[in-house]
Amino acid sequence: MTSETIIQAAFLGLIEGLTEFIPVSSTAHLLLVGHFLGFENPGRAFEVLIQLGAIFAVVGVYFTRLLRIALALPSDPKARKFVIGVVLAFLPAAVVGVLLHDFIKSVLFESPVVICVTLIVGGLLLMWLDSMDLRPRYTEATDYPLSLYFKIGVFQCLAMVPGVSRSGATIGGALLMGADKRSAAEFSFFLAMPTMAGAFAYDLYKNIDVLGAEDAKLIAVGFVMSMISGVIVVRTLLDFVSRHGFAPFAWWRIIVGSAGLAGLWVYG
């Protein structure tokens, strides 16, 4: 393991934390940057496993609130409803992720052109969604109807395609079904925890035999950087979205996707 590889792992971890919770697709950014850096890792496990750092970022920022919900479970129906809602939202992606894991990792993760096109198309859709005159009916992420939680989970399945964005799919689905921007973004944080923890556990199980000590060190570096940058995003995203909406992220997606296509055309 060279110092250059460690720097690459740290840089990719930084990108993971900065992009995981905004609707620009962290996986697409990691795969494209890794492609142009020539960063190789067994089974494409690095991109999934460093997400644990971003999970820790959410847990750290929301620790007091999560603890309050956990302590209220025995006596508070609202707390139990929220936990059931998160489980319902998590289940569709868990089932689809297990069934299509090998196809996603071996085909979609290895298709940079598809990733770039998906970034651009997703940016156009996000811009259209941000311009719609939607009338929110739900403004509290912990008090959505159970049916809404499940439907958001179905939307999250779209993010199995790199470039779609897990947060973008969940936020977009929530907005279309009556949630306001702030609560939609906040629920994407809560849903990220079981979704990303599940992806981490399953990917580790699938790749444990091919990961060596050097890979573990690189993953640890990426994990730490992901957690640090993730905390910054989680602390600032809700206020940013409330003020500026999602148009800035839409433009970023279009720029990155276009630059990626140009880079692939020039460099291969």
From TrEMBL:
<feature type="transmembrane region" description="Helical">
    <location>
        <begin position="83"/>
        <end position="100"/>
    </location>
</feature>
<dbReference type="GO" id="GO:0050380">
    <property type="term" value="F:undecaprenyl-diphosphatase activity"/>
</dbReference>
<feature type="transmembrane region" description="Helical">
    <location>
        <begin position="6"/>
        <end position="33"/>
    </location>
</feature>
<feature type="transmembrane region" description="Helical">
    <location>
        <begin position="107"/>
        <end position="129"/>
    </location>
</feature>
<feature type="transmembrane region" description="Helical">
    <location>
        <begin position="250"/>
        <end position="267"/>
    </location>
</feature>
<keyword id="KW-1133">Transmembrane helix</keyword>
<dbReference type="InterPro" id="IPR003824">
    <property type="entry name" value="UppP"/>
</dbReference>
<keyword id="KW-0133">Cell shape</keyword>
<dbReference type="GO" id="GO:0009252">
    <property type="term" value="P:peptidoglycan biosynthetic process"/>
</dbReference>
<keyword id="KW-1003">Cell membrane</keyword>
<keyword id="KW-0046">Antibiotic resistance</keyword>
<dbReference type="GO" id="GO:0071555">
    <property type="term" value="P:cell wall organization"/>
</dbReference>
<keyword id="KW-0812">Transmembrane</keyword>
<dbReference type="GO" id="GO:0046677">
    <property type="term" value="P:response to antibiotic"/>
</dbReference>
<dbReference type="Pfam" id="PF02673">
    <property type="entry name" value="BacA"/>
</dbReference>
<protein>
    <recommendedName>
        <fullName>Undecaprenyl-diphosphatase</fullName>
        <ecNumber>3.6.1.27</ecNumber>
    </recommendedName>
</protein>
<comment type="similarity">
    <text>Belongs to the UppP family.</text>
</comment>
<keyword id="KW-0378">Hydrolase</keyword>
<keyword id="KW-0573">Peptidoglycan synthesis</keyword>
<dbReference type="GO" id="GO:0008360">
    <property type="term" value="P:regulation of cell shape"/>
</dbReference>
<keyword id="KW-0961">Cell wall biogenesis/degradation</keyword>
<feature type="transmembrane region" description="Helical">
    <location>
        <begin position="45"/>
        <end position="63"/>
    </location>
</feature>
<comment type="function">
    <text>Catalyzes the dephosphorylation of undecaprenyl diphosphate (UPP). Confers resistance to bacitracin.</text>
</comment>
<feature type="transmembrane region" description="Helical">
    <location>
        <begin position="149"/>
        <end position="175"/>
    </location>
</feature>
<feature type="transmembrane region" description="Helical">
    <location>
        <begin position="187"/>
        <end position="205"/>
    </location>
</feature>
<dbReference type="GO" id="GO:0005886">
    <property type="term" value="C:plasma membrane"/>
</dbReference>
<keyword id="KW-0472">Membrane</keyword>
<feature type="transmembrane region" description="Helical">
    <location>
        <begin position="217"/>
        <end position="238"/>
    </location>
</feature>
